[in-house]
Specification:
This protein is mainly α. It contains twelve helices and four strands.
């Protein structure tokens, strides 16, 4: 068995072994579990001045080690704090703004939801959105492949885009890749209103779960590693409110367009449960609560180690589509 990282010298060579076992990685960073994204607020405290930074704790990888490619799913054992080991330079320089609160990343996440609403109301159809999204995915995915094979390119990439990255993405695939994969999938497979709503749930519920999980997660039970009851409740509430606004205001207020896909709006304003049909505000309230629960469940679900940016929109879309298919 290779020696534990806890006994490694922090001045070790950047060429950290590619075969480092996941178990050793977990053991070396077990203490960081309490800093998980939704369980606690990250406790890393760094100065904005590089000269005043404290020496890196023993047992952690040094910043020179960040260029090593990830082992299979090894990053999932690491805290989901954006940079718990301080491997992204800009996170150390602006620790509270970028590292602790993830402000740039969350702003980008939330803004995509508003962009999706704008595109929906403007009559942009999924069939016309998929090609440009796929075109964007190709260079972004290619850049990640280059990062894994070129240390210098990886360093440049992190220097330019590190403010939007988590440390797991330094060693693994960029979250934008998974975001695009999830978005393209739901737009290609599901009705227009369900697909767009699932993108809103990804944009807003994931952000709410992360924010409130960090603030209050330590005071509530843990559902699984990195997921707290506080974060899940926040996701459910935001999902329910978002669904109510979506089907109660945005969809009805969007004019019909000549090229609207057939069956593009699945929600009919009614639910039939156990032979009882409800309509109007009661039906809207019911589907909104159900949507919130589906969104919360998708945010907690660990599906074969897949990234949340794929799991949340796809699972949410499947759940909402299934409910409307059976009871709508």
């Amino acid at each position: 068995m290779p020696p534990s990282l806890g006994h490694c010298n922090t001045s070790r060579s950047p060429s950290i072994s590619r075969s480092t076992s996941s178990s050793s990685f977990v053991a070396a960073h077990a203490h960081s579990a309490s800093e998980a994204e939704e369980d606690t607020t990250p406790s890393t405290s760094t100065s904005s001045s590089p000269r005043s930074r404290s020496p890196e704790p023993k047992g952690l990888l040094s910043p020179s080690d960040f260029l090593s490619p990830p082992s299979t799913n090894a990053w999932r054992t690491l805290s989901r704090s954006p940079s718990p080991l301080g491997l992204i330079p800009i996170h150390r320089q602006f620790s509270k703004f970028i590292h602790k609160h993830e402000v740039p990343r969350k702003l980008l996440h939330v803004s995509i939801g508003f962009l999706a609403i704008y595109l929906y109301r403007s009559g942009h159809q999924p069939a016309r959105l998929i090609p440009p999204l796929t075109t964007a995915l190709l260079p972004i995915g290619t850049a990640d492949v280059l990062r894994f094979s070129s240390d210098s390119f990886n360093a440049l990439y992190i220097r330019l885009l590190g403010a939007l990255m988590r440390e797991s993405e330094v060693r693994g695939w960029n979250g934008v890749v998974w975001y695009l994969v999830g978005t393209i999938t739901v737009l290609a497979v599901f009705p227009k209103d369900v697909a767009t709503l699932s993108i809103l749930l990804l944009s807003w519920c994931d952000t709410a779960a992360s924010t409130f999980g960090r603030l209050w997660g330590r005071h509530t039970p843990s559902i699984r590693r990195g997921k707290s009851l506080a974060g899940s409740l926040a996701a459910a509430i935001v999902g329910a409110v978002g669904a109510a606004a979506w089907w109660g205001w945005i969809v009805p207020g969007t004019p019909a367009y000549p090229d609207d896909p057939v069956g593009g709006v699945m929600w009919s304003g009614r639910l039939a449960i156990a032979g009882v049909e409800v309509t109007g505000g009661i039906a809207l309230a019911a589907i909104s609560v159900i949507t919130g629960l589906v969104a919360s469940a998708s945010e907690v679900l660990d599906l074969w180690g897949l990234d949340d940016n794929v799991v949340i929109p796809v699972v949410s879309a499947v759940g909402i589509w299934g409910i409307l298919k059976v009871f709508g």
